[in-house]
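Incident log, structure service

09:12 report received: a user says their structure output differs between two submissions of the same chain.
09:20 pulled the input from the user's history:
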Amino acid sequence: MKKGLAYLAAAVLLHSSFFIRNSSSGSDFRAALPGYEFEFPRDHGSHEDFRTEWWYYTGHLNTESGRRFGFELTFFRVGVVPPDVPAGGRWDLRNLALAHFALTDINGKRFRYYEKANRASPFTAAAATGFLDVFNEGWKATTSPDGSWRLIAKTNGDAVDLTLKTRKPPAIHGENGISIKAPVAGYASHYYSMTRLEVSGTVTAAGKSERCSGLAWMDHEFGSSALRENQQGWDWFSVQLDNETELMLYQIRRSDGTPDVTSSGSLVTSDGTVIHIRRDQMQITTTRRWRSPRTGATYPMRWKIAVPSLRLSLMLDPYLENQELVTRDSTQVTYWEGAVRATGSLENTAVSGNGYVEMTGYDRAFRAP
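09:34 re-ran on a clean worker, output below:
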């Protein structure tokens, strides 16, 4: 069964943060089209009329003893049967459920990750509609009675048990309710982020647990399209700055290495206002690279980001070079997802902060088989 799930999962979409791929055209599922009206808490829940969906948490934690950690906890839902096809029984395979958990021990300079793959069912993995309640075996992202969220993941002596409280409303990315991935109708997703989540709880590394606090970021994205044949992969950036602003950028890379015109981003101001950033407004360059000893993939490792129209200039540096995930038992995708530090300026004022970077398509083009 695990091999069957892995094969099906290889035809599915993984985000990390904004991307979509599938095993067929997705024409029997709903397309992400302009005019979608978000509503919360409804849209924190599952959207099974779309083929692919993910809830993506990343963040930075500080323990009482002064240790620092980055974490990633991601839940994927992949529709196998369109919602208008009648169910044949309670155990029909209608959705696949995949999950990744990674912990970056910044002080210890260690990175570990884990993965899960299940068929969705009330007993193995599922996501509720109307509010946030998603789980995959013992890993969970749920809504508490007071409206806060709780994240739980535990594997092989590494764990997080975190309470998240938002300081800002959801940031809707893109324009007119969609985040475009290609200049063709329907090649898009509905995409929003919770960009400033205050965190408290415990983090466990190699069996040692400590109280912690910090900041987290959540991406939730759903749609039914795929990357185009001339698109190689993408680079995604999220940054939380010390002046209460946040930045999200994604750059879809074409097969020739140039950025696709549909790449875009958002700057979220201190009061929660979302400023859309077009591809022609952003500049992303790299200054060095790292070659993975495991896969041979070569990744950028230091990024200079500029949005001149917003007087924004940042340098992002990884806390560790080796933050690569090779997910052969779930999505079968190799990608780099890692904790980074940020320094620079916004509107001629010095800023600093932390963030996460995700990169796909560096070992091979991101494609469904």
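09:41 both user submissions now match this output. Likely a transient worker issue. Closing.
09:42 reviewer note: The CA atoms of residues 157 and 207 lie 4 Å apart. The chain has one domain: 2-360.
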